[in-house]
């Protein structure tokens, strides 16, 4: 039975990398979005490149006289965008480079090797796939990925890919470094909300970390498809590493803003849990990924999910779990029409 399931999955599975490597002159029909959902590359319609997005120097957090300045900058960024880039974040450039190298080697593996990890089950702790969920997506996205749980590392790392041989070591070091960075950023966000910086310390340490390693191969028709559809992330924060431009965020006026590539910087995106934790003061950011005709883009999305404490104010959102979120995205392919968090809002009456 399991063999027949795996065979069925393999027969229905064609990765974006395979299509690019085969030299297809056009994207297959299943990747073509309706005109209203296309990224309008090279056009000013619906997109903005002149918006100044926040870049925060995290080294200020370690300077007693300047920490309040950094916390204030984070407060403003969270209110206005739900997003900021960070520099001087403390993760060595060698760790970042090694992780990207290991990811590139994984996606360059023979198809048969990667297929050992393929699954359409979103609950799998380690899952290789394409699009969002190749078996259920009505429209496919130009993306291959490997996702795995990453905290605590000792619990999960043995389940990670054994090929390439460097993967566990190099990606493991990056996962540990981003977990530590996440704790620092959560402390600063807690302060920016007027809480003690240790307010979520226990929940952060006991929470989960999922790393999605994404590959967006060069695409023959980037103007008719996307690498990822508009969506917001479930957890508290996503720390994103990107090898080149491709991320876009939606601003308060519903314009798409291109996020510039800054060498050495990492991106912090607020997730739905921060919107819940702040009772709506901060918003989770809606974002999407465009693809490029000439460049393969790699990214590491480190998604962090603590368990939240109840506050003193009346809750604006209902309770939910990570499994609730997974079930939602596996059965809903229109992320922009209604975010998962929008389904949880309580009536004010």
From TrEMBL:
InterPro entries: DIOX_N, IPNS-like_FE2OG_OXY, IPNS-like_sf, Oxoglu/Fe-dep_dioxygenase_dom, Plant_2OG-oxidoreductases
Segments of this protein annotated with the region Disordered: 19-48
Function: Involved in the regulation of shoot development and salicylic acid (SA) homeostasis.
Annotated keywords: Cytoplasm, Iron, Metal-binding, Nucleus, Oxidoreductase
Position of the signal peptide: none
Superkingdom of the organism of origin: Eukaryota
Similarity remark: Belongs to the iron/ascorbate-dependent oxidoreductase family.
SUPFAM superfamilies reported in the protein's UniProt record: Clavaminate synthase-like
Name the record gives this protein: Fe2OG dioxygenase domain-containing protein
Subcellular location: Cytoplasm; Nucleus
Domain Fe2OG dioxygenase: 206-306
Principal place of residence: cytoplasm
GO molecular function annotation: metal ion binding; oxidoreductase activity
GO CC terms in record: cytoplasm; nucleus
Organism: Brassica carinata (Ethiopian mustard)
Alphabetized Pfam families for the sequence: 2OG-FeII_Oxy, DIOX_N
